[in-house]
């Protein structure tokens, strides 16, 4: 019995020992394998990390400028090489080729057309979407010529004729840019000329404050053309700013029924235009013959 008891104890101990060894082997083997793999790849991982730091981050620092250069190259290819430009006159393509974004160029052109003017390069910063970095990039290409001496002359002694002045003469006046100058010239052509200086103030979009600034610099010569009341059709008469389409038709119908107009009195008799103010404004424009 004692012998059997010792055998049972020995077998139980052996079984216990074997079971612990199996668990140890089963649990530790993956860790050992992982540690082995880590040891094998540690050198390679370090080299990869070094390579990542030295290549990928360098690439981030250097590829972006390359991409910028490629983008600039594409812009130059599309619009031509950069060149010096005057922001008051340069066309869209020239300013974009110099490095200005298209959105900013559109804003600058709108600013010019509304009468804005750039007197020095720093004035470009007035554009609300212009940034310091963009301005520094294009500043070397900006060339604004000095104000001509003619712009500084004594205007009251040397005014401009509202019926003779061209576009450039209008832009010399204070507060008048390309946009206002074009509007004034278009209105003058539609009228057939200004009958008085005060008519300039009727130009669409021209602020009264601007007109008051330039009023003393203006003179008015006789109207160069007029309204050929006996020759023009109703459609042609209606193109005049002071004549409405319905009034033009009545004028032509009256002329057809009663013959050619010979005086302003007959125009009043036609009752085509019953607005006394406009009748008085139209009085200098009527022409009853082509001579």
Question: What is the fold-level CATH name, i.e. the topology of the domain at 69-143?
Answer: DNA polymerase, domain 1
Distance between the termini: 155 Å
Mean pLDDT across every amino acid position: 78
Total number of strands = 4
Helix content: 55-70%
Give me a quick take on this structure.
This protein has 291 residues and is an all-alpha fold. It has helices at 2-79, 92-97, 102-113, 132-138, 167-172, 178-191, 208-214, 234-237, 245-258, 264-269, 276-282; strands spanning 160-161, 218-219, 227-228, 286-287.
How does this model look, in words?
With 291 residues, the protein is mainly α. Among the domains are: 69-143, DNA polymerase, domain 1, CATH 1.10.150; 153-219, Photosystem II 12 kDa extrinsic protein (DNA polymerase, domain 1, Orthogonal Bundle), CATH 1.10.150; 227-287, DNA polymerase, domain 1. It contains 11 helices and 4 strands. The chain has a two-stranded parallel ribbon with strand order 1-2. The chain has a two-stranded parallel ribbon with strand order 3-4. Residues 21-34, 39-73 and 149-157 have low confidence and may be disordered.
Q: Helices, strands, pairings?
A:
Layout: H1 2-79, H2 92-97, H3 102-113, H4 132-138, E1 160-161, H5 167-172, H6 178-191, H7 208-214, E2 218-219, E3 227-228, H8 234-237, H9 245-258, H10 264-269, H11 276-282, E4 286-287
Parallel strand pairs: 1-2, 3-4
